[in-house]
Amino acid sequence: MTSTARRKSYGVKGAPYAFLLPATILFALFFALPIGYAIWLSFRKVQVSGLGLGSGARKEVWAGLENYTDALSDSELLNGALRVLGYGCIVVPVMLGLALLFALMLDSEKVRLAPFTRLAIFLPYAIPGVVAALLWGFLYLPDVSPFYFVLDKLGLPQPDLLDGGPLYLALSNIAVWGGTGFNMIVIYTSLQAIPAEVYEAAKLDGATPLQIALRIKIPMVAPSLVLTFFFSIIATLQVFNEPTTLKPLTNSVSTTWSPLMKVYRDAFGEGDIYAAAAQAVIIALATLVLSFGFLRAANRRNKQEAAR
Questions:
Q1: CB under 8 Å, gap of 24 or more: what pairs does 245-252 form?
Q2: Which of 27, 76, 79 is nearest to 272 (CA)?
Q3: pLDDT in the model for residue 161
Q4: Integer distance in angstroms from the first to the last C-alpha of the chain?
Q5: Which of 294, 188, 171, 279 is nearest to 231 (CA)?
Q6: How high is the mean pLDDT of the chain?
Q7: For the segment 253-307, what is each residue's pLDDT rounded down to a tens digit?
Q8: What is the three-class DSSP state of 174?
Q9: DSSP string of 180-208?
Q10: How far apart are CA 282 and CA 259, in angstroms?
Q11: 3-class DSSP state of 49
């Protein structure tokens, strides 16, 4: 092989790596390195000597697992996790149930104005989370909400949605309103990929539209349901925008309402980036374990059904 042919061969073989290089650099700089730095900070702490005044009075030292043990025994972090759990028990089933229902309705042959309806359902997802929270926060305030004005004129009770138990419904409504459209598009795309011959065979066998939906469509889009459930779990564990935006409107939302709000307060309010880093690592590990466990369970079930 001549030197020219050898250089051409190396150039062809190295082309994929050259295309991957920019993405790899960006991944390392803006994803891998920040994660590694957060893990490093989680094992450090500030040691104060004397009154903490003067040069050398405050220095960063190795803390070992101290930040992790403090985080795991922190009642505020635990209570925040429990609140997010209750929030997720409302958001995930309602959002995915509505997404599946809308996708099945749009996939029906009798539906009219399907493109406009798809856009109308998906549009809230395009609105930034902070803007959506401000919009709904305005509608939740009794003094300025048009809904409360109508209820007052009709002589109906006016519940305070930003206090106590209704607060969970108020926050969940924002997430459901914004996330249903995205999940609906994922499920609807899977429905469109089902061959038409499957439906024709079912109709020849005398299956009704309801039977086709329950026995054919839903089982065949199960992978999409698993995917949307996976994304919904991650989004629920990372809830931050909605409670943070509504916090100035009510005293029921504390600075530690969710685990990520606790991390934010400790890092930027208290100035303890080391404890905040340990808490962030714990939240990331919890998200990874829950997501991996769910995927394992879903894959095991799919294998059992395939073996039947």
A1: 245/129, 245/130, 245/133, 245/134, 245/137, 246/133, 246/137, 246/140, 246/162, 246/170, 246/171, 249/137, 249/140, 249/141, 249/162, 250/162, 250/163, 250/167, 252/162, 252/163, 252/164, 252/167
A2: 76
A3: 87
A4: 55
A5: 294
A6: 87
A7: 999 999 999 999 999 998 899 999 999 999 999 988 888 888 787 777 767 666 6
A8: helix
A9: HHHHHHHHHHHHHTS-HHHHHHHHHTT--
A10: 10
A11: coil
Contact between residue 133 and residue 178 where contact means Cβ atoms under 8 Å apart: no
Q: How far apart are CA 10 and CA 1, in angstroms?
A: 12
Contacts 24+ apart (CB under 8 A), 117-126: 118/184, 118/185, 118/188, 121/180, 121/181, 121/184, 122/181, 122/182, 122/184, 122/185, 123/181, 124/177, 124/178, 124/180, 124/181, 125/178, 125/179, 125/180, 125/181, 125/182
Residue-wise pLDDT tens digits, 134-193: 999 989 988 888 888 888 888 888 888 888 778 999 999 999 999 999 999 999 999 999
State the burial class of residue 60 (Cβ atoms within 10 Å of its Cβ: 0-12, 13-18, 19+): exposed
Q: Quick check: 52 pLDDT over 80?
A: no
Tell me if 186 sits within 8 A of 228, measured CB to CB.
yes
The domain tally of the chain equals: 1
**Residue 79 belongs to a domain:** yes
Which of 173, 1, 209 shows the shortest CA–CA distance to 94? Answer: 173
In a domain, 42, yes or no: no
Domain that includes residue 102, residue range: 74-307
Q: What size, in residues, is the chain?
A: 308
- Tell whether 58 is covered by a domain: no
Angle of helix 222-237 relative to helix 273-307, nearest 10 degrees, comes to 170
Chain-centroid distance, C-alpha 155: 39
Q: How far does Cα 65 stand from its chain's mean position? A: 28
Contacts of 18 (CB under 8 A, 6+ apart): none
Q: What CATH number has the domain bearing residue 202?
A: 1.10.3720.10
Question: How many beta carbons lie within 10 A of that of residue 227, not counting itself?
Answer: 17
Per the domain annotation, does 95 fall within a domain? yes
Eight-state DSSP code of residue 157: -
